[in-house]
Amino acid sequence: MAIRKAALGARWASVTDVSGKLRQANENRQAQRRLLDQLEEQVRRRRQSIDESLADLPPSQRTQLVNRAVAGRRGELKRETYDKRVALLREAVRLRDELVAVRDHYKSPVQMLMRENLGSERRSRILQQIAASGPAELASLAEYAAATKDMELGAALCSRVADLMPNQRPFSSHDLAEALVGGDHRKVVLSIMEAERLAEEVANDEATFERGAPDNLRVLKIARMIQAEQAVAEGLPVSSDDQSTPDQQGDN
User: Fold this and answer.
1) CB-based contacts of 161, cutoff 8 Å, min separation 6
2) Domain that holds residue 145
3) In terms of domains, do 31 and 47 share one?
4) Which of 10, 59, 140, 228 has its CA 20 to 30 A from that of 200?
């Protein structure tokens, strides 16, 4: 069995930190939506105004003049808001990258549980007390830890059964960790996935405003990311393709 090498360069963030960064990402996304909605409304009003002022012209000629005027107004708005729009895009990318950087610390519920109260005196005492415990006692204690949400006891039990042969382990460390910290683990995983999706949405809306048309590949990617988030929320398996970090083309 291959030994996983430690990702020593991975950045750290607590569950609370992750929630805070996701909140910032959502606020940034909403700010972009408000800005782009305001800009599109200005373009719409210009189109309506010009169209009404040229009502006496033939339809084909009127359409040509209206489109020219609207394109000119859109160009003005692009130049006037460029710095603000780029700042929103860069903020989305920054927050996404900061959250993706902590993913190695949240690979599984067991990994999270083993960090709970690491080095505490009580956890050390528990380890000493259960050092000679048999399968029946360990199973009973695991049930008790899950029922009482006792993190220190759960972590100590996972350490203890790791020393047993797989066919001698009276409970699954994953199942115990899932019962104790599974909710927080899913919360972090979903937060990282959502931050990745928000960055893609910001990039797509920016490209749509700049070019006047959405990026169809990005639209498809966003739809797949939403499906992956839903699968994780429901406890379903997610393919490695759905979990991959989106490319950063056009992000900078």
Assistant:
1) 138, 169, 170, 171, 173
2) 116-166
3) yes
4) 10
